[in-house]
């Protein structure tokens, strides 16, 4: 699964929100710290705990006891999850056609000239990096 261990199970949108909140709260966070990072409405403590238990059962989170509370740690990085999600969407929505996806994203986003220039630099760096290898050997 694109750098994500195969044993991890798919996430619901609510589970994903809790995982994002965990990453925002820090590398090891308690339920209360995670809850403070959740967007929108107030989430009940029991609801947050339920989602943390689900995430642990699915392999996305591990927990450890510290005093009278549990601390939760994600098992993968936010960047790895982001890459996984982007690759999944690229395949699903654009059939793996990266130029079409970039064209659609740039034409429909409100990115600034500076952001576009940064993106061009990233692509140029990646292109130069790829040019260092002979893919035909």
UniProtKB/TrEMBL annotation:
GO terms for MF: DNA binding
KW Transcription regulation (keyword) present: yes
Pfam families: Penicillinase_R
Biological process per Gene Ontology, one example term: negative regulation of DNA-templated transcription
Cited InterPro entries: BlaI_family (IPR005650), WH-like_DNA-bd_sf (IPR036388), WH_DNA-bd_sf (IPR036390)
Coiled coil: none
Keywords: DNA-binding, Transcription, Transcription regulation
Entry superkingdom: Bacteria
Family as reported in the entry's similarity comment: Belongs to the BlaI transcriptional regulatory family.
Protein's name in the database: CopY family transcriptional regulator
Species of provenance: Faecalibacterium gallinarum
